[in-house]
């Protein structure tokens, strides 16, 4: 399988690229990135690094380079306070993610062999909330934005008459880097954090095999 990975310089995205390169079921990785990637990626015969500045637009020449991809691991995003303001966070999550999903549905799905399905796996977050009017008392902006992104992706998939575009939303409750120290690991237990490599392996497995539900909670990710 050929796959697209985004957020390749981030904690989750970089782990996804590593897992894809190491997985024999994945034949090629299109690493879609704004910034240069490490030599371990650029030198891999399984990876094509594509630098792309505007993740709200997918021109024909870019889509041509992604031809043959059967899935996408989307790891662009984060918590709302990590962005300059809430509107920027919403733009990055909602606008960028949905623009990609629509472009892949419109241009990559029709190129797939008969019977093949394109799987779009979005790295969301625990307690993501679809109801934008519901009162929330902690992490409200982050949860609403993640929920709005999930809902939009699912609506795009539901609108596909061919049913060949599938969406999955992974909801880690917290993510521990591979080099997390003892103190961080202990604090991570308070919210049942998942290791980044474990999360990446779970998302790759969902990409390859699909899953019984669209929304995959943290407890299920830890079992994959």
From TrEMBL:
SUPFAM superfamilies found in the cross-reference section: NAD(P)-binding Rossmann-fold domains (SSF51735)
Domain of life the protein comes from: Eukaryota
Listed InterPro entries: NAD(P)-bd_dom_sf
Protein name: NAD(P)-binding domain-containing protein
Organism from which the protein derives: Thermothielavioides terrestris (strain ATCC 38088 / NRRL 8126)
């Amino acid at each position: 399988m050929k796959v697209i990975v985004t957020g390749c310089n981030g904690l989750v995205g970089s782990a996804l690229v590593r897992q894809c390169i190491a997985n024999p079921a994945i034949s090629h990785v299109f690493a879609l990135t704004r910034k240069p990637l490490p030599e371990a990626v650029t030198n891999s015969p399984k990876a094509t690094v594509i630098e792309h500045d505007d993740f709200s637009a997918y021109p024909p020449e870019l889509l041509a380079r992604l031809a043959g991809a059967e899935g996408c691991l989307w790891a662009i995003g984060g918590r709302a306070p990590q962005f300059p303001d809430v509107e920027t966070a919403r733009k990055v999550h909602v606008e960028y993610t949905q623009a990609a999903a629509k472009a892949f549905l419109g241009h990559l799905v029709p190129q797939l062999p008969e019977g093949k399905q394109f799987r779009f796996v979005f790295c969301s977050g625990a307690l993501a909330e679809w109801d934008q009017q519901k009162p929330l008392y902690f992490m409200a902006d982050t949860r609403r934005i993640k929920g709005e992104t999930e809902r939009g992706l699912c609506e795009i998939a539901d609108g596909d008459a061919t049913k060949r575009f599938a969406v999955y939303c992974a909801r880690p409750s917290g993510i521990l880097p591979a080099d997390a120290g003892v103190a961080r690991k202990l604090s991570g237990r308070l919210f049942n954090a998942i290791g980044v490599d474990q999360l990446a392996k779970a998302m790759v497995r969902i990409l390859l095999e699909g899953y019984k539900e669209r929304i995959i909670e943290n407890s299920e990710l830890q079992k994959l």
